[in-house]
């Protein structure tokens, strides 16, 4: 039920799902803070509490902000394409910087404590996701924001960008769950099986993290909620490979 | 580049990706077996080794077979729709039964050992995924295989079925990673950080599990790899809601 070029009505249901996603995202951030505050002594850079900077930054950056960056094209449906692109790119920059702080925090903490780095599945997934995220941003920037790429190149890269964007987001959620599990098992050990309040809170946090991932993915993939076609996109969607080769569009 | 009704050429690239997915899937199953054999004493029903039935069954059922069931419509492109549907449904039945054996194994093992059930994030996610999988199968069966549903109902439910199918599969992969991590931390504890062979093997297994999920998702979501439209699907894709209301199609 798309309505062609120009200002289109917002699809029925979309605002509720977006509102729900934001509620979930903010709940997840707040709950991560509550978990760290209630059961892990809170947050500080210059002490053993430095570790706690890691989960908070990762959840704000690579879960909440990354998720919201993916939703930009669904939420800002009638703004100029270029404005939406810049917002999408900027949100990812913020997410990246916050995640970088979170990464520095954990490496720094390990160094102070003399712990080994990068031995766990969580850390392997984390480094992989972070690298992919950086590469995806660079490639996305060069194709879509840097004015050099042709319509044809953009049209061929676009579905790949979307697929890998969604995949990196889902891998981020998965990595967060692994990290949460690790933090629980290291501290609680066999006490985990006695349904301690921290364990139950963290389990609920884990489920909400997964829910946030699913809701963002749902909004992103629903065909009739895609951004209405505008001039540039229509050209892209026709998938003619050579016709516009070398032609560099200045979007809107 | 879809080619309308009837026998269509297999899209370029698809067979390689499918072959790669199968190689990954079989490697994951073999590696799970190797991990359990080399480091966990192998598999048996009537001993403490009963636990090991759980990861093996889950990986065969809810990862490999579930993933392959999702690919059926991409691989069997020109067979009758009904045949493909039955194969899709049957693979899910096999996956479900094998996963059920895996579930019984772990509950039985916990009971013998006097361990608590359902306290961990892995178990919460697992029960959720297993329940969703069962509901999805039931609903899918009543809409698509049971002859009662109209074109209109099927066309409205179809995108939801696909989205939730992919989501349940991804949640299964995530749950498997959580379980793997749990098994490692319970047994290895701080030895995990010394890069023991078991830890490294299991980390690689975790990455390959995630890779299998990504490759299946890629094959599933690539627009130009979708099954070519046949008569029934064309009717569905037109999305006319009332025209065929009450009309029950006999597929093919």
Automatic annotation (TrEMBL), chains A, B:
Q: Which reaction(s) are listed as its catalytic activity?
A: monodehydro-L-ascorbate radical(out) + L-ascorbate(in) = monodehydro-L-ascorbate radical(in) + L-ascorbate(out)
An example GO BP is:
ascorbate homeostasis
Q: What positions does the domain Cytochrome b561 occupy?
A: 20-221
Where, subcellularly, is it found? Cytoplasmic vesicle, Secretory vesicle, Chromaffin granule membrane
Membrane disposition: Multi-pass membrane protein
Q: Name the SMART domains for this protein.
A: B561 (SM00665)
Q: What does this protein do?
A: Transmembrane reductase that uses ascorbate as an electron donor in the cytoplasm and transfers electrons across membranes to reduce monodehydro-L-ascorbate radical in the lumen of secretory vesicles. It is therefore involved the regeneration and homeostasis within secretory vesicles of ascorbate which in turn provides reducing equivalents needed to support the activity of intravesicular enzymes.
Record protein name field: Transmembrane ascorbate-dependent reductase CYB561
């Amino acid at each position: 039920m798309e309505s062609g070029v120009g200002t289109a009505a917002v699809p029925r249901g979309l605002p509720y799902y977006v509102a729900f996603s934001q509620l979930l995202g903010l709940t997840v951030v707040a709950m991560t803070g509550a978990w760290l505050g209630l059961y892990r002594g809170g947050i500080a850079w210059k002490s053993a509490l430095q570790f706690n900077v890691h989960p908070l930054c990762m959840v704000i950056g690579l879960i909440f902000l990354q998720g919201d960056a993916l939703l930009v094209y669904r939420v800002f449906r009638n703004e100029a394409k270029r404005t939406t692109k810049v917002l999408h790119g900027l949100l990812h920059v913020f997410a990246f910087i916050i995640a970088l702080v979170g990464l520095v925090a954990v490496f720094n903490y390990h160094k102070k404590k003399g712990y080994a780095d990068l031995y766990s599945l969580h850390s392997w997934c984390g480094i992989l996701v972070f690298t992919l995220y950086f590469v995806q941003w660079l490639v996305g920037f060069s194709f879509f924001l840097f004015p050099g790429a042709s319509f044809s190149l953009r049209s061929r890269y676009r579905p790949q960008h979307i697929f890998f964007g969604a995949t990196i987001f889902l891998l981020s959620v998965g990595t967060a769950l692994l990290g949460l599990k690790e933090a629980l098992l290291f501290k609680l050990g066999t006490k985990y099986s006695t349904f301690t309040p921290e364990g139950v809170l963290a389990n609920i946090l884990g489920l909400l993290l997964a829910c946030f991932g699913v809701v963002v993915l749902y909004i992103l993939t629903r065909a009739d909620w895609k951004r209405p076609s505008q001039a540039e996109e229509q050209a892209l969607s026709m998938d003619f490979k050579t016709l516009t080769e070398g032609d560099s569009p200045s979007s809107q």
